[in-house]
């Protein structure tokens, strides 16, 4: 029996968020209820399932309205003959008819409007002659969409095999080609590579398919970024509907094929988990797998035109084709290379942490006069604020707050607090990095992180499984973890990062002549700012004045408030406000920029980078004061942070293709915020260092000079 497992709470909650709000005859909001019945009827009517098992998890819903809809959902289901709630039931004509009648009763019009459906025909073939004919026919199409069905065979990221390929090159049909006999993954990849020379290839999440083929636009390319490149207007180029949809709406960071189908085509598609459950795709019926793959290929084919039209309308087509699409291949290449991680060094690092952690435990127990669970906020709060009598913030039902910011204020009053903060930092280092990273080292002794370009609202690249962008830098002990990352034998790391990129972008965007001049005057922008703000000669700036100026410089970039600055510097709000006023008097163009950025975002509904990347800011229209304030901070910062992300991406494109053009053995392997790392051949150190500095600095021309620091070393710690 093929059974659909339904969580009633999740079904209602998902529908509540996706269906437009409307109320029933009794005034109750029922969009979640209606949507849940509709989706349930669609899934059960598909012919895929013989039965279903419905249950209601204990997950707490957000609102009373959702709670009411869940209860009502259960009541209406229980009233249907032949249905057991909760429990297992069979899919029968009577049950389907009852679901239809229930929907009619909920609908304000008394009718159930038919949802658009997939109307393409599907063919499955593994006959080599037929497949050859299909590819021959596809070669005459201007656009060909494809989608690989894959499955993981082992624990490593490279242990992925293709089960088949779906192709779609017209509105009426799609074909699924299983990987079997003479139809190998290599064969299908070669066919796609050939197709890419004359047709625009479209898919969902193109980075995942690069493991099987390389498109002609990458194979033939050796040039870097060209701001004026318009070749996409008349030449075939690959198109990733995931990247396109994300650019159009970067606030949604979890696009799946069914989201794109609903948003751009108005056609609902069952999620992968709803179709296959926990069943392996290789164990599923071929028709079911083929249907799933062909639908995604069709969605890609049909959604690409409206996605591209929206990109063109918003002025982001060049950003898409000239930055994001080539970047997707570079990220794949970096993931494939990975970074060597020494298991023995990682264990030694963890052992050293453990020694210090145990020392801190003894010191904490000695100072408190008792043993307790240091990781328990409740027990820690009782020890600090009741037993030791330290001043506490207001006690809540859950106990005293022991958040980092609370403890940092208390640290000068008792040594135990400083020890607790260090203990927390070290235990996190051990669990997250010393222990956690070991699980990600693959059989080639490398960690292959995943670089994500469709996650952050600002356009920054993120890293997951594991997150190598969060490798600690604040403390020496934290930085030492970089010693476990090494290049291959005989090679070194070349590490380059931008100096104060966001502050330089602020100087450019604000047009403030004082700030621009400060960058042209010397290297130490913070000392220069301190000199100007505190009206002291540059040579007499104290370390404290420089530190305060640095906090203001970087805080202004993020739209910091006087309260936030006071927290950062441990000074009164009045003093912080005075610092900020002096800063704005020194650099009046910065305040003008902030005011202008906020007003522009309010007028347009979005912020924009120097390269046209848009970031919607709906919070600016909120009636909630805190949300509106958040929106204003985003309006000030998003153009700066987003521009920094764009510049880094352009630099990566320039560096990658310069290395390729000069036929070097060295390889780009990591990107961390404003930093690039290259595994560098011994005879190419000077050339690679030169490439990094040149290509990163000339990625953009601003009113202030771009500066890049580059170092080399035998491990990541030494290179950084």
Summarize the structure.
The chain has 720 residues and is of the alpha+beta class. It contains 27 helices and 20 strands.
Q: What does this molecule look like?
A:
- It is a single chain.
- By secondary structure, this protein is an alpha+beta fold.
- The chain folds into five domains: 104 residues, no CATH class; 198 residues, Ribonuclease H-like superfamily/Ribonuclease H (Nucleotidyltransferase, domain 5, 2-Layer Sandwich); 102 residues, Taq DNA Polymerase, Chain T, domain 4; 96 residues, Alpha-Beta Plaits (2-Layer Sandwich), CATH 3.30.70; 139 residues, Orthogonal Bundle (DNA polymerase, domain 1).
- It contains 27 helices and 20 strands.
Low-confidence stretches: none
The CATH architecture of the largest domain can be named as: 2-Layer Sandwich
Output the CATH topology of the largest domain: Nucleotidyltransferase, domain 5
Tell me the β content. Answer: 5-15%
Percent of residues in helices = 40-55%
3D shape: globular
Give the C-alpha Rg: 29 Å
Task: Record the SSE blueprint.
Blueprint: E1 3-7, H1 8-18, H2 31-45, E2 51-55, H3 64-78, E3 87-90, H4 93-106, E4 121-124, H5 128-138, E5 143-152, E6 160-168, E7 173-178, H6 185-196, E8 200-203, H7 216-219, E9 239-240, H8 241-248, H9 257-265, H10 272-276, H11 286-313, H12 317-337, E10 339-341, H13 343-368, H14 377-387, H15 404-410, H16 415-435, E11 446-447, E12 450-452, E13 462-464, H17 476-479, E14 485-486, E15 492-498, H18 501-510, H19 513-521, H20 525-533, H21 543-557, H22 562-569, H23 573-586, H24 588-604, E16 606-608, E17 614-616, H25 625-661, E18 667-672, E19 675-680, H26 685-697, E20 708-713, H27 716-719
Parallel strand pairs: 1-2, 4-7, 5-8, 8-9
Antiparallel strand pairs: 2-3, 5-6, 6-7, 10-11, 10-14, 12-13, 15-19, 15-20, 16-17, 18-19
Helix pairs in contact: 1-2, 1-3, 2-3, 2-4, 8-11, 9-11, 12-25, 13-16, 15-16, 18-24, 18-25, 20-21, 21-22, 22-23, 23-24, 24-25, 25-26
